[in-house]
């Protein structure tokens, strides 16, 4: 079977185990006090559980010497108390471990999420959302599981020390025989190391692929239904899911091979110890009770050893997961703020000088592009699809890094301005209105959190009236659901208009929606657009005839170049590129054209 979706992302790196452990220890280092408690309690708990078989065997020997019921009762009581103490220690240990591990996962998840939010748009173009989601959620969770297992392994290590030292006092030679087997256990488990990490990585990548697929399916469910593609989606999902099943099954098969192997080592060790122990009894070096104690203690040593050994593959899973989280934390955005010039006020003058930009180096979008826009000027950008209109808007918003040239706003190079203060002064209306699953009121208030309800109602009123709001179940307080599902397309646009009106930006960038709405809403949108443009520099990627007719200047773009500019009448007179565009595109929206069609019918 050919596997897919298992490739490393471009931002994947390979960290050394040392680097990873140093960074992990920094996360745990924040919770030193709790970690100290965990370590002390783990030591105490190991001492208690390690002393029980030893105490039991000594008591049996004592009873052989003097048969006394009260000694027996006393000893049984102390064993009970030790067990109880062990339980208490274990309980405290679990609570503190859970606290530390979950806090570390919380911190890691916060760091990953914060860095993802700081990325520029090119990052989100390249990496499917589902995969990013998987890294933020599942990988940090796997790391948490690994941390739990790590704590268990540490406890096992304590237990080994506590059980093994008394064994040395029983018979040094027998302890030596057992010690010879320790490297065998470790060599055996360490040989799983590399492949375990590889399998773990594959497991996580395929999970990310499944997540990405489900995410995309949900996002495009409406389109899928329109084209009746549910069956196709289902069979595609089956394919991805099957691959995930095979990878996880193989991983489990492989990892589970380890336990029968370890059992065999245990069997061989116990056989050897019993054989040599027997010869020591025959030779009179040790009593039978000593050897029985030795073998029973030895048996209880295997569990902690196995726990350490089995810890390895899971440790590798966690290391692979944390490595993936760290790569996200370390990936650097391409848009870098070179200085921190805060923008308090903008007049709205824009100069674009010798701009060069590409998404992919082999396909330049702008080559030495120049454009000056005056404060308060309204400019419509028109041109065929793919001309670079939206790219220009994205660059002005500094969503993408441009490779060379300058964009100067007032007198500030946008590479050097504080992006937060700059974007507050630039209002952007994308083609498709994006609304959050929140109330209508909070959606309008988005980005202008200190505005009152009156101001929100004013903005909605300016952006096309409030009548439609009264028809909503709870008016302005209605939860409009994911992406504003409860509203019509036109209403969604009006909400975004109101949002930008409230923001009161100095520069407006509007990517007019191409989707047509009913004539009534259309009129409202056009009026709202005109209101929005008043008194600000406006750059409009125009799809409406009324917009192109009313702006100060029309800029015609073709393959990233300005091919014509002027106002509607001049450009029509010129009978060039714009005139052709008008005839094929804008003319159909004119009343004259509609009337003509009606009369010819
Ligand atoms: N995120 C992206 N990654 C790679 N290439 C892109 C990206 N966005 C746009 N492009 C490419 O850049 C070119 C310009 O696209 P842009 O969206 O700016 O065109 P446009 O003039 O706004 O078109 P439309 O009117 O269809 O929206 C197109 O060839 C497009 O394929």
From TrEMBL:
Instruction: Give yes or no: UniProt keyword Glycoprotein.
Output: no
The membrane topology noted for this protein in its Swiss-Prot or TrEMBL record is: Multi-pass membrane protein
Q: In the record, what lineage is assigned to the organism producing the protein?
A: Archaea, Promethearchaeati, Promethearchaeota, Promethearchaeia, Promethearchaeales
Keyword list (alphabetical) reads: ATP-binding, Membrane, Nucleotide-binding, Transmembrane, Transmembrane helix
Molecular function per GO? ABC-type oligopeptide transporter activity; ATP binding; ATP hydrolysis activity
Q: Which residues cross the membrane?
A: 35-56, 68-89, 149-168, 174-192, 252-276, 291-312
Q: What is its main location?
A: membrane
InterPro entries xref list: AAA+_ATPase (IPR003593), ABC1_TM_dom (IPR011527), ABC1_TM_sf (IPR036640), ABC_transporter-like_ATP-bd (IPR003439), P-loop_NTPase (IPR027417), Type_1_exporter (IPR039421)
Q: Which domain of life is it from?
A: Archaea
Tell me a GO cellular component.
membrane
Which ranges carry the ABC transmembrane type-1 domain?
37-317
Q: Does the keyword DNA damage apply?
A: no
- Where would I find the ABC transporter domain in this sequence? 350-584
From what organism does this protein derive? Promethearchaeum syntrophicum
Protein name (database record): ABC transporter ATP-binding protein
Q: What subcellular compartments does it reside in?
A: Membrane
Q: Which SMART domains match?
A: AAA
- List the PANTHER family: ATP-BINDING CASSETTE SUB-FAMILY B MEMBER 10, MITOCHONDRIAL, ATP-DEPENDENT PERMEASE MDL1, MITOCHONDRIAL
Record's PROSITE patterns?
ABC_TM1F, ABC_TRANSPORTER_2
